[in-house]
Amino acid sequence: MASLVLDRLNVVTSESSPSDVTAVLLHGWTMDLTTWDRVASALPGRVVRYDVRGHGNSACDGRPPTLSELADDLAAVLEEFVPSGRIVLAGHSLGGMTIMALAEQRPELFSRVTGVALVATSCGDLPGLSGVERLAGRWLVKRPKVGFGRLITPGLRVTFGRRPRWADVRAAAAMAGNTTGTAFVGVREELTRHQRREALAVLANIPTVVMAGSWDVLTPMRHARAIADALPSAEFLIYPKAGHMLPLERSEDVAWRIAALM
Predict the structure, then answer these.
(1) Per-residue model confidence as pLDDT tens digits over 88-121
(2) For 218, phi and psi rounded to 5 degrees?
């Protein structure tokens, strides 16, 4: 089963220095592993990243993946690429939700997890699809790739906070355009079914940092506060005037916080 999963996933590993701890970085919906480029290059030790199904260079089997299946993918990556040693998990948006899904399904795997970073994410109660989203979804789901990276750049600006680098906005738009239509639409629908506050109990005794941008419009502050309330021992960091794209907007500090967990 693991080999079948890994056959369709684009996985990248790097190591700046020998270490018994591996950071596994999970990107958000419509993004890809390059979201973490600046963060990964600043981390000590070994780093593993991969593109989620239907995102970046990872294949999709023609139907949208569920969060449970994305958790299975994460488990397969850990089994193959981090078979021993300590693990630090960092998830941005969908990546954070995938970590929660893994905690729900495979809590025993967290015996080697010695740190978790939950970045601009949610444990549930995300809004349903609007009528416009449903209408656009019927068309987008038929496209092998969303495309229109340059055209959607202005729309992606809203996911950032104050004065973002335009190169980052363009990069985010290019990633979104490289997502398959099936994943773009299906994962968005799947997020409305995400309810995993109880799964956070698995992280109760693991050093955890919760990071949120005060101007995040996709997972607003109330979502970060819900996670922090469920994990009272976690460090809760708010980045004023930052948006949803913290691995791009606040890459230096995000890297520092993950490195501290390593």
Answers:
(1) 999 999 999 999 999 999 999 999 999 999 999 9
(2) -90, -45
* DSSP 3-state of 68: helix
Query: What pLDDT, in 10s, does the model give residues 171-222?
Result: 999 999 899 988 888 899 999 999 999 999 999 999 999 999 999 999 999 9
In 10 A of CB 75, how many CB atoms? 18
Interstrand relation of 113-119 and 235-239 (parallel, antiparallel or unpaired): unpaired
Report the distance separating Cα 60 and Cα 76, nearest Å.
16
Domains and CATH numbers, the chain: 2-126+194-261 (3.40.50.1820)
Within a 10 A sphere around the Cβ of 145, how many other Cβ atoms? 16
Instruction: Report whether 29 contacts 122 (CB < 8 A).
Output: no
Query: How much is the CA Rg of the chain, to the nearest whole Å?
Result: 17
Q: Which residue has the tokens 């990964």?
A: 40
Q: What is the pTM of this model?
A: 0.94
Total number of residues shown for the chain: 262
Phi and psi of 217, rounded to 5°?
Answer: -100, -10
